[in-house]
Amino acid sequence: MRRITGERRLLAAHLGLVYLFLYGPIAVLVALSFNKSGLPTAWTGFSVEWYGKLLGNEAIHAAVANTLIVAVASTLISTAIGTLLALGLERLRSSALLDALVYVPMIIPDIVLAIALLSFFTALKLTLGLHSIIVSHAVFNIAFVCVVVRTRLKHFDTSIIEASIDLGANEIRTFFRITLPVIFPGVLSGALLAFTLSVDEFIIAYFTAGAGPASTTFPMQIYSMIRFGVTPEINAVATIVLGVSFFLVLLSQRLNREAA
Amino acid sequence: MNRPAAVIEVASVAKRFGPVTAVDDVSAAIREGEFFALLGPSGCGKTTLLRLIAGFEQPDAGSILLDGRDITRVRPNRRPVNMMFQSYALFPHLTVRRNVAYGLEMEAVREPELSRRVNETLDLVQLADLAERRPHQLSGGQRQRVALARALVKRPRVLLLDEPLAALDRKLREQMQFELKRLQHEIGITFLVVTHDQEEAMAMADRIALLDRGRIAQLDTPRGLYERPATRFVAGFIGMMNFLDGRVSRIGNGTAAIEVPGCGPLSGTSASALAMGQAAVLAVRPERVRLSLSPLPGALPGKVAGVAYLGQDLLLQVGLADRPQPLIVRLGSADAIAAQVQPGIQVWSHWSEPDAGILGD
Amino acid sequence: MSAEVLRRVVLLGPGLGWFALFLVIPCGIVFVYSFFERGTYGGIDYIFTVENYARAADPLYLAIFLTSAKLAAITTLAALLIGYPAAYLIATAPKRWQMPLLILVMLPFWSNYLIRSYAWIVVLNREGLVNHGLQALGLIDEPLPLLYNQFAIVVGLLYGYLPFMVLALYSSISRLNPEIAEASADLGASSLRTFLRITLPLTLPGIGAGSVFVFVLSIGNFITPDLLGGGRSLMVGNLIFDQFLSARDWPFGSSLAFILIAVMLLLLVAQAWAVKRAQGAGIHA
What we know:
The complex is a heterotrimer. Chain A is an all-alpha fold. In chain A, 78% of the residues lie in helices and 0% in strands. Chain A is built from 11 helices and no strands. Chain B folds into 2 domains: 6-232, Rossmann fold; 240-360, CATH 2.40.50.140. Helix content of chain B is 23%, strand content 36%. Chain C has one domain: MetI-like fold, CATH 1.10.3720. In chain C, a hairpin with a 5-residue loop joins strand 1 (37-38) and strand 2 (44-45). Chain C contains 13 helices and 2 strands; from the N terminus they run H-E-E-H-H-H-H-H-H-H-H-H-H-H-H. Chain C has helices spanning 3-33, 51-56, 59-91, 95-106, 113-124, 129-136, 150-174, 178-186, 191-202, 204-219, 223-228, 236-245, 250-280; strands spanning 37-38, 44-45.
């Protein structure tokens, strides 16, 4: 139990200001989304008009649908591949170089990865579309899933694998009946992370989507709304996006805690 | 047809890990129904040997036979041998019941046979009312019993136990030593235990193989290891031992004498071949040393340096003249002389020739 | 194929294959492009040249690199100064409060980056909350130009990466053995001295890790300077974006990208080396 000394009061005040800094703008956006006038200058009354407009916005619907398709697909691919990769790296005691390679997609600036993938696809004369976004998102998602699952694997008692074999199971049965169920919370955590990252990802999608609304993702849509035509609908969009991501993060935390 | 008495036989088995030789030309036969222990300090190769028998390692040389059949190349999940892991390795996501049933499911055992055998084994280890719990809800001792049940339910030819009592606290450990012995006796399955604790091995095993750096130093009953150690290593590993170094001065029929600087010639039994002048050591157990308060011919003069009261016994350190190492002497607290020994008094130490052994280095 | 090799192929194959195909080769292509010339219509003339890299050293572009580094450095410093006390409080709070406090800091980090930069457009613009508030308080008469400049970029970057810095610092601080600080106090050091001479040096690896990551993430950032910078190519990320999409000079853009990567790698290697040295001295992140 720490006594509340003077300096801790100071630190607490500082932390309070930090929270103010972090949540202030968010609060403003949320408030604005319910502002009838939609402008930050004047509060003309509570209204859900902008949310209503949002519901009718076809372009946004299409973009959300595209984003979900991309996110689900890249999550499925990267969760499977990333989990296998994590198992491989953790159990097969591979080189430090391979370990480092896995971190590259996480740390490389997204603009660099974006242009690299664009160059790659055009060099191969591939048509761009949702499929190229999916493939591109999987690149960093595999890395993230791998890292998350590996962290989980560090607490994994490998002797249960041997126990399963000793009791008569072969490697495949052991994988499905023992390994997978035990690491599942970590895999789920990684999948959730991959999904979130994909849903939010803008620049790689922008470069690899090609032309046309058929492959416009939600972040791309948000970008053009911010850049080229700021209507108050954007505040409603922002509030919904923030709400969903907060919910997902808290959910993921819950899962992590239960599994721990 | 007669079943061979040896259920497991390792023949000239060797295993290397890179430059390190973990098991070096080991041969042994483990008899049906016996409680056998692999004992030794860490790094002696006992765990490697266990894993070779279980099938998790492949020997570089030699073979492993089960009931006379060569199983060296048989995969671990196909050997009728089961292991109780040091960390217990319970499946954390399965209940106790599912953990125990796992091995039977792998054998495609169906209901009602499956449940019958599981319940029978759970009763055997007294876990019946914890059957629906998960491992994290159990105590260390309970987890150990689950690990045991999980292996036993498959009725293996041999049960391998890797440091089964290491994770338990002292009281529980002593209790479990009796439990394991009783269980083994009741079921009749051959137990092969790996342990670094010589008291544990001595308490539980019918025969012990003491390993030193990949080789068997001695394979014998506990009494044999204690009373007739074959080498200095064995003598020093089991129980407490006094060592007096010297050079062989006389070789007789089953006896020998060594010249110990400061003590003159001391004799004892000798089992191994010795050469005159060879460096050798006289080994005598603390409880075999007799003390006299008055000078005795042939006894070693000395002075009591310390007395430790252990309840039933006294443990004394007796400093001998011209010798840096004190003699350790164990007396019963009820002995006549016990009341008179105190630090500083003069004593004369002696023992009878059959109680001492001369061992080559 | 032996069991061991099969296992390797099945586990490592898909992942490494994906990386080889969609990471290594694309980066390789970019590297190769950086040595070619721009074609007349925006394509690529396969003529070898180091012109692109030479051009990058042009004062015009050099200035952009330096500005990027400057803004990234300011952001990192600010994140460090603001983040450390926050992380310290959280790390020394009662155990059951630590996770909630930390999650509260991290929540914004997990939401859409575009939205997070957009939020500052709303707050900082001439009719936004800050200006409104300052005018209402009578501190200023005219609205301040807080948006579409370098100040806004720094605020945006700081907003984006402060949570990350707090997390990195928290990891490091929470791993300290509390008895060490207590020993320092026992030997007569004041709180401040204990902090400066014991706590701070021991958390240096965390500071290093957090700083390098925030710097690297900031310097390569595109969205914040694009939305908050006023539409001019103020940072490297924007420059590369322009080269690929407006100027259509892929070779030049590629060379810029590679210079950026080189700078990043240098920093990461330096940090890894520093961590190794610290570990040698007994300090662990």
